[in-house]
Amino acid sequence: MDSPKTVDDLLEAVAEVLFISFVIGLVLITISFLVVVFARDFVYGFHGKFYPAMTKQQFDCILYALTGAAKMFVFTVLLAPYIGIRVVLKRRKAGA
After folding, report:
1. Considering the domain boundaries, does residue 95 fall inside one?
2. pTM for the whole structure
3. Average pLDDT of the residues in 35-54
4. Which structural domain, as residue segments, surrounds residue 23?
Protein backbone atom coordinates (compact mmCIF):
# COMPACT_ATOMS: atom_id res chain seq x y z
CA MET A 1 0.00 0.00 0.00
CA ASP A 2 1.24 3.49 -0.82
CA SER A 3 2.17 5.79 1.99
CA PRO A 4 -0.24 8.66 2.73
CA LYS A 5 2.31 11.22 1.55
CA THR A 6 2.53 9.56 -1.87
CA VAL A 7 -1.27 9.43 -2.18
CA ASP A 8 -1.54 13.08 -1.15
CA ASP A 9 1.07 14.05 -3.74
CA LEU A 10 -0.80 12.12 -6.41
CA LEU A 11 -4.10 13.73 -5.45
CA GLU A 12 -2.45 17.17 -5.52
CA ALA A 13 -1.12 16.50 -9.02
CA VAL A 14 -4.48 15.26 -10.29
CA ALA A 15 -6.25 18.25 -8.74
CA GLU A 16 -3.80 20.62 -10.42
CA VAL A 17 -4.34 18.99 -13.81
CA LEU A 18 -8.11 19.13 -13.37
CA PHE A 19 -8.02 22.80 -12.41
CA ILE A 20 -5.80 23.78 -15.34
CA SER A 21 -8.04 21.79 -17.68
CA PHE A 22 -11.09 23.53 -16.20
CA VAL A 23 -9.57 26.96 -16.84
CA ILE A 24 -8.61 26.01 -20.40
CA GLY A 25 -12.15 24.73 -20.98
CA LEU A 26 -13.66 27.98 -19.72
CA VAL A 27 -11.31 30.00 -21.93
CA LEU A 28 -12.29 27.95 -24.99
CA ILE A 29 -16.00 28.30 -24.21
CA THR A 30 -15.57 32.05 -23.75
CA ILE A 31 -13.64 32.39 -27.02
CA SER A 32 -16.27 30.41 -28.93
CA PHE A 33 -19.01 32.56 -27.37
CA LEU A 34 -17.25 35.77 -28.37
CA VAL A 35 -16.64 34.53 -31.91
CA VAL A 36 -20.30 33.62 -32.32
CA VAL A 37 -21.51 36.91 -30.83
CA PHE A 38 -19.22 39.17 -32.83
CA ALA A 39 -18.76 37.12 -36.02
CA ARG A 40 -22.02 35.15 -36.19
CA ASP A 41 -22.64 35.83 -39.88
CA PHE A 42 -19.11 34.77 -40.80
CA VAL A 43 -19.39 31.56 -38.77
CA TYR A 44 -22.83 30.82 -40.24
CA GLY A 45 -21.56 31.51 -43.76
CA PHE A 46 -18.53 29.28 -43.25
CA HIS A 47 -20.58 26.36 -41.95
CA GLY A 48 -23.39 27.06 -44.40
CA LYS A 49 -21.05 26.04 -47.22
CA PHE A 50 -20.82 22.56 -45.73
CA TYR A 51 -24.52 22.35 -44.81
CA PRO A 52 -26.42 24.47 -47.35
CA ALA A 53 -29.87 23.35 -46.12
CA MET A 54 -29.19 24.58 -42.56
CA THR A 55 -31.22 27.63 -41.56
CA LYS A 56 -30.00 30.32 -39.16
CA GLN A 57 -32.48 29.06 -36.58
CA GLN A 58 -31.08 25.53 -36.83
CA PHE A 59 -27.56 26.94 -36.63
CA ASP A 60 -28.44 28.86 -33.46
CA CYS A 61 -30.01 25.75 -31.90
CA ILE A 62 -26.93 23.67 -32.68
CA LEU A 63 -24.60 26.29 -31.21
CA TYR A 64 -26.77 26.60 -28.10
CA ALA A 65 -26.81 22.82 -27.60
CA LEU A 66 -23.06 22.44 -28.16
CA THR A 67 -22.25 25.31 -25.82
CA GLY A 68 -24.47 23.78 -23.15
CA ALA A 69 -22.85 20.37 -23.60
CA ALA A 70 -19.39 21.89 -23.37
CA LYS A 71 -20.32 23.74 -20.16
CA MET A 72 -21.79 20.58 -18.63
CA PHE A 73 -18.66 18.64 -19.53
CA VAL A 74 -16.31 21.25 -18.11
CA PHE A 75 -18.22 21.60 -14.86
CA THR A 76 -19.06 17.92 -14.24
CA VAL A 77 -15.94 16.21 -15.55
CA LEU A 78 -13.33 18.77 -14.53
CA LEU A 79 -14.62 21.04 -11.76
CA ALA A 80 -16.64 18.56 -9.67
CA PRO A 81 -13.77 16.06 -9.27
CA TYR A 82 -11.38 18.93 -8.50
CA ILE A 83 -13.63 20.08 -5.67
CA GLY A 84 -13.99 16.50 -4.43
CA ILE A 85 -10.24 15.97 -4.36
CA ARG A 86 -9.71 19.25 -2.52
CA VAL A 87 -12.29 18.23 0.10
CA VAL A 88 -10.61 14.85 0.56
CA LEU A 89 -7.16 16.44 0.90
CA LYS A 90 -8.46 18.97 3.41
CA ARG A 91 -10.01 16.20 5.53
CA ARG A 92 -6.84 14.09 5.32
CA LYS A 93 -4.71 17.02 6.46
CA ALA A 94 -7.14 17.85 9.30
CA GLY A 95 -7.08 14.22 10.47
CA ALA A 96 -3.31 13.88 10.21
Report:
1. no
2. 0.84
3. 91
4. 4-89
